[in-house]
Amino acid sequence: MKRIPSRLVLVLALALGAVPDFAMATEPFLGQPRDAAPPVTSSSQRFVFRGLRREDALKLSTWAERMASRLESDVGLRLPFGRSEMIRVNGVLNPASERGQLLFSQGFVDGLLQQGITVENPGQVEEEQFLEGFVAVLLYRYVLAEYRAGARRSGAEVAIPDWFLVGMAQRLTPELRERNLRFVSEAWKQGDGFSAAEILGFESLPQGRVAQKAYCGLLVDWLKPSIENRLGWRALFRHMASGGDQGPSFWRGLLPGDPEQREFSKQWDLWLAGQMESIRDLGTLSFDDLIALRQILLRTTAGYPPGHRGPPLALEDLVSLRDEPWIRTLALDVMADLSRFGVGRAPALREAAQGFVDFFQALADPSTFGPTFRLTAGGPEVVLRRMLKEARDDLEQLEKDVALRSHYMNQMQRPTPTRPDARDARPMPEPASERGLDELRRRYLDALEQQLER
Predict the structure, then answer these.
(1) Residue 105's beta-bridge partner residues?
(2) Which of 105, 359, 367, 437 has the fewest CB atoms within 10 Å, counting from its CB?
(3) pLDDT tens by residue, 47-61
């Protein structure tokens, strides 16, 4: 196997280890395999899992596709997979160690990129730990595709700094983004934390779930618009593949005005201050606000079509009925209700409502969207259904954010156990699992249904 000059194994071995007291432990992500199970291949044929419990392999096959799709959406580029270039994940037991860890390999075989992830003691590996390693492998795939396409430079080393690998992973789930923002917020208000220049110096990170990783995720959040507007993701991966400089001066150069270090850190502080405002905005929201918005949407079609006596129409039904003469009246009525609803509401709630306003505006008067309908494959129906889906996705994300806020407020209000060696700072709240979020949202929807029945 021809090895690519890379620090992948070294970088990730430093970053992924035991979990310190920075955060409370979560439920196990995987179990210890007992008997050999047949390999499981994901739906896209991009990932294959061996040496794991069958239920874990099936779970990971779906999980991997979901996380890969999120990363692709985040950077706007399809992951480069050629035929026979799947990523192989192999679970193994190491009786000599009680730790769970990830080991990585990559290289070209007959021109094909081969990447592997060995999961030692799967039962001791957490989801966050696996996510960081998995995303790192995918990011290297983007970079190595550019390397193979000719971006290489003689004697150059293909390497991605840890802060970037970890930061990209830390922003892929709402749970991690919420946790990191709240943690950094508390530190920021106490005058603690890391400057932007310090974070850019994290070429390798300490083991485990350490505080630095929360800052890495937020730094990538901050730099993402500059990456997209000043350089572009493909150009960034090409720069990494060529062994180009990735020091602080390179990243500062992506910001408008190419600020010096002091101004760079000042802009970072101002951005963080803005994120604190977003936390306060979220704090003004409650399930009652969301229920009020849902009520408007659920009662949208009441009385339509005129004389209709059957079950109420769903919003999707309005798309196929868009040419009916009464659609414009319905749409204008709902837009008026949503506009009145937004008065005095939190900005995040107004923004969620605006997605539905745009949908009904397009129903009432497609000409306001210029050539969008005419030039989109599939025409108005495709555009309208996409607008409705995006509006619903935004509302559901806001519901999860509010559920998370409630979860974290409850966690923060719990008494902190005292230990002789404990620091004064309160430990970070336990991340909410997806199952826990689903339960919170189910209770919220139950409350909505009860109100509608009154």
Answers:
(1) 116
(2) 367
(3) 999 999 999 999 999
